[in-house]
């Protein structure tokens, strides 16, 4: 099969799952990676089963698992056209909140994990002159009081630009997706006035659907009700 292949980390819920559905609807074969194997398999079945969707258990903080994720993708589908480094999670604001262990896990996932996804996917993306996307945040554009999560997303913002500069003239496009408040499992108490995961997925697909000579580097998308 020659249909393009779209890989998503953090694909088991929220923005990742919504993007997987949007990509499958646009004709992509999808690779779904996350730590929640059961939820991934359910989504893969929904999206067409093993011929169209591949579920891979992957902890993005483990280099060997990221390498295996890409290798399995190429063995099964023969190519990689889009890689979306989306895995990540947040923390309560306040430098006296959360535990140091929780902080460590968040920083490793949000920053180191995203960097490993870039490293693992670049060779295959160069082969297809593909597209690399990263999930940043409005919190990666302005510091939030007491927010180490915000600091991790500032790192992702810099990583996106650093990757774009490195990949210039390779044909690989790089896009940083920066959502505002999104009604996803990221929040314990979802509320009105937030984006839906589908809204962010449409933003991702907008960037991916541009002609090859158009590289949309950053998209900041907020709900209308969000003032900052």
Description of the molecule:
This protein is of the alpha/beta class and 228 residues long. It has one domain (5-221): 3-Layer(aba) Sandwich (Rossmann fold). The protein contains six helices and nine strands. The protein has helices at 14-25, 37-46, 63-77, 100-128, 148-167, 197-208, and strands at residues 5-9, 29-34, 53-57, 82-85, 131-135, 173-179, 182-183, 195-196, 218-221. The chain has a seven-stranded parallel β-sheet, sandwiched between helices. It has a two-stranded parallel sheet with strand order 7-8. Strand 5, helix 5 and strand 6 (173-179) form a beta-alpha-beta unit. Helix 4 (100-128) runs parallel beside helix 5. The radius of gyration is 16 Å and the shape is globular. The N and C termini lie far apart (45 Å). The model has no long low-confidence stretch (mean pLDDT 92).
In short:
This protein is of the alpha/beta class and 228 residues long.
List key phrases describing it.
228 residues; alpha/beta; Rossmann fold; seven-stranded parallel β-sheet; two-stranded parallel ribbon; 9 strands; 43% helix
Order of helices and strands: EHEHEHEHEHEEEHE
The CATH architecture: 3-Layer(aba) Sandwich
Task: Please report the distance between the alpha carbons of the first and last residues.
Answer: 45 Å
Number of domains: 1
What's the total number of strands?
9
Helical percentage: 40-55%
């Amino acid at each position: 099969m020659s249909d393009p292949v779209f890989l998503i980390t953090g694909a088991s819920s929220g923005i990742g799952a919504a993007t997987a559905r949007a990509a499958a609807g646009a004709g992509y074969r999808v690779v779904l990676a996350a730590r929640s194997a059961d939820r991934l398999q359910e989504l893969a079945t929904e999206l067409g089963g093993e011929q169209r969707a591949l579920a891979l258990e992957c902890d993005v903080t483990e280099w060997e698992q990221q390498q295996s994720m890409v290798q399995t993708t190429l063995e099964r589908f023969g190519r990689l056209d889009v890689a979306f480094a989306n895995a990540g999670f947040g923390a309560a604001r306040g430098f006296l909140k959360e535990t140091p262990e929780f902080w460590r896990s968040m920083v490793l996932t949000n920053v180191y994990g995203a960097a490993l996804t870039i490293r693992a996917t670049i060779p295959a993306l160069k082969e297809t002159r593909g597209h690399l996307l990263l999930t940043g945040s409005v919190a990666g554009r302005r510091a939030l009081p007491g927010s180490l999560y915000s600091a991790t997303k500032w790192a992702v913002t810099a990583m996106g630009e650093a990757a774009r500069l490195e990949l210039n003239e390779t044909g690989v496009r790089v896009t940083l997706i920066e959502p505002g408040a999104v009604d996803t499992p990221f929040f314990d108490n979802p509320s009105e006035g937030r984006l839906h995961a589908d809204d962010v997925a449409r933003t991702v697909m907008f960037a991916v659907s541009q002609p090859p000579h158009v590289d949309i580097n950053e998209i900041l998308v907020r709900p209308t009700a969000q003032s900052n």
